Every structure is written in C-alpha cells, then in structure tokens.
Amino acid sequence: MIGVIGGTGLRKIDGLTIVREEIVDTPYGKPSDKIIIGKLGNHEVAFLARHGEGHTIPPHLINYRANIFSLRALGVRAILAVAAVGSILEELRPGCIVLPHQIVDYTYGREHTFFDGINNPVSHIDFTNPYSSKLRNLLCENTSLEGINFIKEGIYAAVQGPRLETAAEIDRYEKDGATIVGMTGMPETALAKELGLSYAAICPVANFAAGRGSSKDGITHEEINKKSELMALNVSEYLKVVIEAYGS
Q1: pLDDT in tens, 148-204
Q2: Structurally, how many domains does the chain consist of?
Q3: Are 205 and 95 in contact, with CB atoms under 8 Å apart?
Q4: For residue 232, what is the enclosing H or E element?
Q5: What's the mean pLDDT in 127-142?
Q6: The domain spanning residue 33 has which CATH number?
Q7: By residue range, what is the domain housing residue 192?
C-alpha cells in the first residue's frame, strides 16, 4: 500500500473512494490525525494530514515518529510526502512542483530517530541519498501533465519554523547549496529511511523565499495562499497519475 502525507487535497483526487478511517496508537504517542484509507481504481492508498485536522499542529510540534510508525503499521511501504516550499532560486517560480533529490537539516529539538538507545538500540543508517531512487524515478517519469512545470531535482533546506526565514538566512541556505526551503522535511525523511520505507517528496512552490523575487521586501500570507487552490488541484492530479503508475 502507498501512503500520502500532506494536506486535505487527497480528497479531491478524481476517482478516489474513501473506504475507512483508522485511529492508530503507537509507542511514540498518537499521529497527527486519523489515517484515511481509500481506493483509487484497484490501488489502496493511506492518507495522513501532517498538521492535523484544520492545520492546527505547527511544524516543530508534529509527532513525526508516530506518523511514520502508524503508516507502516497499517501496511504502507512507500510514502509520497507533499510539502509546500519557498523558492530560493529565481527560476523556481511559484506554482511549479519540485521533486527534491537531497536535503539539508537545520531543525533542532525534534524527536528525530527511532534508534535513540531507549526504545531501540542505537543504529547509524546510511543517509547518503535520503529519498528513494525508485520512487523518485517513478515521480520523474510521470511529469508530462499539461500546464504544470516540474523541476526534477532540488535541495530542500529543512528549517525549524513556525516563523518564516530572514533574508540573510535564505542567503546562507543558498550558499549551502539549497534551492527550496520548508519546515517539515526533517525528521520525516530520515524516519521513513530508518523503517525501510520508500519515501519521496513532492514540493509545490508557494512563494519566493525571503528577500527573493516578489518576496524581496517581505512575505504575506495572502501571497502564500494566492496559488494554494491551483496548487492543490495540480498536486491532486499528479498524485492520481503517480499512484496509478505505482500500482501498475
């Protein structure tokens, strides 16, 4: 079964039938929300709202361990993570979809591993390539949707939030090689890797990052939300294509 972590847009996928909802308890507490199980054709899909119902959980307080553990407990073996980002580079314009291949972690204070020496023995996983190459290839092979500009590589700067970044911070991330910035990429990516799950990210660009492009003098929520409806429709359409390709 394939899992999707993201916003409520999954319900908008054409042809998706909601079958049931699962409430999962884990050794790490409760996940962000109930897990919705649906059918798309003959393919079973599990969906989890990362920020909870009504988008009430901030990035630094998400129970990432419980989220990943609960999906695996239900039989999920591959995860598509949808996460809106800000663009650091001028050519990555709002509305495009980036499929990152690397990630840099700037977060702190988050429960970031299953192998903490308490619940499980310490283990040092290989994280050279954080995203599943097989799942990324599937994403990259299905980018011919009309009207959507796909960028097939990107380096995701995972930051703490919930505040947005300063212009100087964005300059720093660019010097470090990052091309997009978001608040939920870590430890989600590493936790999936620890449990042996295939994991890849789909990152619609909501806005230019601080000090860049139309955000040169600041970022407003109006700007971030302006493309949200279109992005949700585009991502839903893309997820349908990818899920059908995954199941074939």
Answers
A1: 999 999 999 999 999 999 999 999 999 999 999 999 999 999 999 999 999 999 999
A2: 1
A3: yes
A4: helix 228-247
A5: 97
A6: 3.40.50.1580
A7: 2-247
